[in-house]
Design brief:
Layout (H helix, E strand, L loop, with lengths): L10 E7 H5 L6 E6 L4 H9 L1 H15 L7 E4 L2 H4 L8 E6 L6 E6 L3 H5 L5 E5 L10 E6 L2 E6 L8 H15 L7 E6 L1 H4 L7 E3 L5 E3 L4 H7 L4 E5 L10 H8 L1 H9 L4 H7 L4 E2 L4 E2 L3 H13 E5 L9 E5 L5 E4 L1 H7 L8 H14 L3 H16 L12 H13 L5 H7 L2 H8 L7 E2 L2 E2 L6 H9 L17 H10 L17 H18 L3 H9 L5 H8 L1 H7 L3 H19 L13 H4 L5 H12 L27 E10 L1 H6 L2 E8 L1 E2 H11 L12 E4 L2 E3 L4 E2 L4 E5 L6
Parallel strand pairs: 1-6, 7-12, 20-26
Antiparallel strand pairs: 1-2, 3-4, 3-6, 4-5, 7-8, 9-10, 9-12, 10-11, 13-14, 15-16, 16-17, 18-19, 20-21, 22-25, 23-24, 23-26
Helix pairs in contact: 2-3, 2-25, 3-21, 3-25, 13-14, 13-15, 14-16, 15-18, 19-21, 21-25, 21-27
This protein binds iron/sulfur cluster (SF4).
The site of iron/sulfur cluster has 12 residues, from helix 22.
């Protein structure tokens, strides 16, 4: 593959040597154009956003192999142009938890303000890590300076935001509408290896799996304040109209990522207590009811017309933002059945500044150690107060407390300490979810910047002809079963394609959920989406430029991780090895990457005709009999049609025909088209051509994965 080459001015970088700034050096801050010396990185840097941030970190790793990696906050071109749902900043560094490259995208208003000052903010230190004493780095049109607020030591990111907003409103009233902040909690100050950071506001946006909050804390900084006008959102664009036409985004906005709960149940993948035991049935319905009852409002990224975040009311009356993945890790995973308990633990994680998913994994391992009689001080599954005590200790326990210190080192260290490595689903040092869905499993295991970036996985409903055409460009065949999540066929191809796509979207700062929904719902074609999101890139590099950028970035990230010690066999951890080593899974993924590296495969424009659904024969009408099928609905369909419907229809028929019949039952035209619905029988995804027979019980799911 070859990196994209954009005929434009070099990117503007604001670089701060924090140690020299603390020392009062006049040359500690530099703002200006930056081009990496290494040829392979120049094209990536010119693409901007996450690609620029990565290029900086990769060059630094070559030039200063023994120095700590910088923390880079960058904004993509879609953010700079005010594209709707592109309001996220890329935050990247070498993760304290894994020692590998990590990137997270953070919403809120920070990205749009930084975009008016620079393409990237690079923070590094020419000296040893220093203690956090309440210093905020203040960035504005004149450069960067430090201001100290000792009263903020130990404060939560939300408290930091409230305090600093008031401070700057009082001291710079003319800038009071131009304020945003990234901040860490006590965990980041103490170097907890899974400390996060937050773009704050009334409902903060958190980022930082892998411990990026500890990287900011290691620089001696409590917060980064940006004082600058925000890039305005283009409100009347073609894209806004497209986003508002996407049924899946409408469902996601309605259900706030919690549509994942019944969807996982329908596919038989919902688990509890260390993600070891499967659950289902009435308990899930009770949980859904308590989620609905706690809902207090919605929130989302700046300028998003279909905000997908939900805010809830906790037991104590506070407002608490929550997404499904985090509340799953801190709820069912810990044997807590009440949603209110998961919310309460999430509130503690947010207050202390801990990543919720790693916290959930660490607590589940401690509870397992307790269950096995290995640790008296560990919490029990199902006891919220005991979990809360451990989380709070990460902010307050004395350095001499060995139990608290062990927790701060993260789940892999805890598993090793108690000999529970076999029970920790961990990949390359980070916790993973043991999905039966082979594409999700492979995606988490190979991801070159942390598992979360592979979260938008719309492949189950994606156009197989298009994916097949992309694969054919690299000489890969698209086998039958490639879209069946539990079949090993074609998973390497699917995952590589998604990883490249997600890398490119994140480099632009555009929301990958939104892109997945637009494509899956066929509101925009790939070519249309690419033209809307990256017109300059496509103008310079032609059709397929976005995926080529994504692939180039993935390859370069894999190279950097290898430099930092990652081995290919680490992508097949023992707990998943048997599944991953099937021919169509990891070996195919590795073959795709090798073909790209060797220049034998490049994404280009594709021309294809949609083939018939594998030519299944329909049974003649005269041979059919009326029969009963039980349909169980998930998400918006459940709200419209009820949770369960018994349908009398001529059988046997095909799934596609059944969906046409379901469509006729429906009264609300704005809900998702039934042609986009995934149908499961006993947890197994059916194809449109699969037969439906009398007495079948089918789960109909219309959701976007991830979140
Ligand atoms: S869909 Fe959700 S994650 Fe995406 S931009 Fe909107 S609020 Fe943010």
């Amino acid at each position: 593959m070859s990196a994209p080459h954009l005929a434009q001015a070099p990117r503007i970088v604001l670089e701060v040597d924090v140690a020299r700034l603390f020392a009062g050096a006049s040359d500690a801050v530099r703002r200006g154009p930056w081009r990496p010396q290494r040829a392979g990185l120049a094209g990536l840097a010119s693409a901007g956003g996450g690609a620029l941030g990565f290029a900086w970190i990769a060059q630094h790793a070559v030039e200063h192999p023994d120095a700590p990696s910088p923390l880079v906050v960058s904004v993509g071109d879609a953010v700079r142009r005010g594209v709707p749902t592109a309001a996220r900043a890329s935050v990247a560094s070498r993760a304290p938890l894994t020692g590998l490259f990590a990137e997270g995208l953070v919403g809120g208003g920070f990205a749009r303000r930084l975009a008016s000052l620079a393409d990237a903010l690079v923070l590094h230190s020419s000296d040893d890590p220093r203690e956090v004493r309440g210093d905020a780095l203040v960035v504005d049109g004149r450069g960067a300076r430090l201001e100290r607020f000792p009263q903020l030591v130990g404060a939560s990111a939300k408290q930091v935001h409230a305090f600093l907003r008031e401070h700057f409103a009082a001291h710079s009233p003319e800038r009071s509408g131009e304020f945003d902040v990234l901040a860490i909690g006590a965990a980041g100050e103490r170097g907890v290896r899974f400390a996060n950071l937050a773009a704050s506001g009334e409902t903060p946006h958190f980022v930082g799996r892998g411990g990026l909050g500890a990287v900011l804390g290691g620089l001696g900084l409590k917060a980064v304040v940006v004082l600058a006008p925000s890039v305005p959102t283009r409100s009347d664009s073609e894209l806004t109209r497209a986003l508002l036409r996407s049924p899946r985004l409408a469902v996601r906005a309605e259900a706030g990522t919690f549509e994942q709960l019944p969807a996982l149940q329908a596919s038989g993948e919902l688990r509890e207590r260390g993600f070891r035991e499967r659950i289902g049935g009435e308990r899930v319905e009770r949980l859904e009811a308590s989620i609905e009852a706690a809902k207090a409002g919605a929130h989302g990224c700046h300028g998003c017309p279909t905000p997908c975040g939900w805010v809830f009311r906790t037991d104590s009356g506070e407002r608490q933002g929550a997404r499904f993945g985090a509340s799953y890790a801190l709820g069912l995973n810990l044997g807590l059945e009440r949603f209110e308990d998961a919310l309460a633990l999430l509130a503690v994680c947010d207050e202390v500044g801990l990543d919720a998913k790693e916290s959930g994994a660490a607590l589940a391992l401690l509870a397992r150690a307790r269950e096995l009689g290995l640790e008296e001080r560990a919490p029990h599954f199902g006891r919220r107060a005991e979990f809360e005590r451990v989380l709070r200790a990460a902010a307050s326990a004395p350095p001499s407390d060995p139990f608290a210190r062990l927790f701060e080192r993260g789940p892999a260290a805890i598993a090793a300490h108690y000999g529970l490595e076999g029970e920790h689903t961990c990949v390359k040092g980070a916790s993973a979810r043991p999905d039966d869905n082979l594409a999700s499993l492979l995606g988490q295991c190979v991801s070159s910047r942390g598992g979360d970036s592979m979260r938008a996985f719309p492949f189950a409903a994606f156009d197989p002809a298009l994916l097949a055409a992309w694969g054919a460009g690299g000489g890969f065949e698209w086998p039958a079963g490639a879209l069946d999540p539990r079949s090993s066929a074609g998973k390497g191809l699917v995952v590589a394609w998604h990883e490249d796509w997600s890398n490119a979207l994140d480099a632009l700062g555009f929301c990958s959920f939104s892109a997945a929904a637009l494509l899956t719902d066929r509101v925009l074609s790939l070519a249309e989406l690419e033209r809307v999101l990256a017109p300059e890139l496509v103008a310079c590099d032609g059709a397929g430029a976005l995926l080529r950028l994504g692939a180039e970035l993935t390859l370069a990230q894999r190279e950097l991780n290898a430099r930092w010690g990652a081995r290919e066999r680490d992508e097949r951890p023992p707990w998943a090895r048997e599944k991953l080593e099937q021919e169509g899974v990891w070996p195919q993924y590795a073959a795709v990457r090798e073909a790209q590296r060797a220049g034998r495969w490049s994404y280009g424009p594709v021309d294809f005709a949609t083939p018939d659904e594998d030519g299944a024969q329909e049974r003649p009408a005269e041979e059919r009999r009326l029969g009963r099928v039980t349909l169980r609905f998930v998400g918006a369909l459940a709200g419209e049609l009820g949770r369960e419907v018994a349908l009398e229809t001529p059988l046997e028929c095909r799934v596609a025909e059944l969906l046409e019949r379901v469509a006729r039952l429906r009264a609300v035209a704005s809900a998702p088209g039934t042609s986009k619905v995934s149908v499961f029988r006993a947890g197994r995804l059916l194809r449109a051509s699969d037969p439906v027979r009398a007495d079948d019980v089918l789960d109909l799911v219309a959701v976007l994965s991830g979140g």
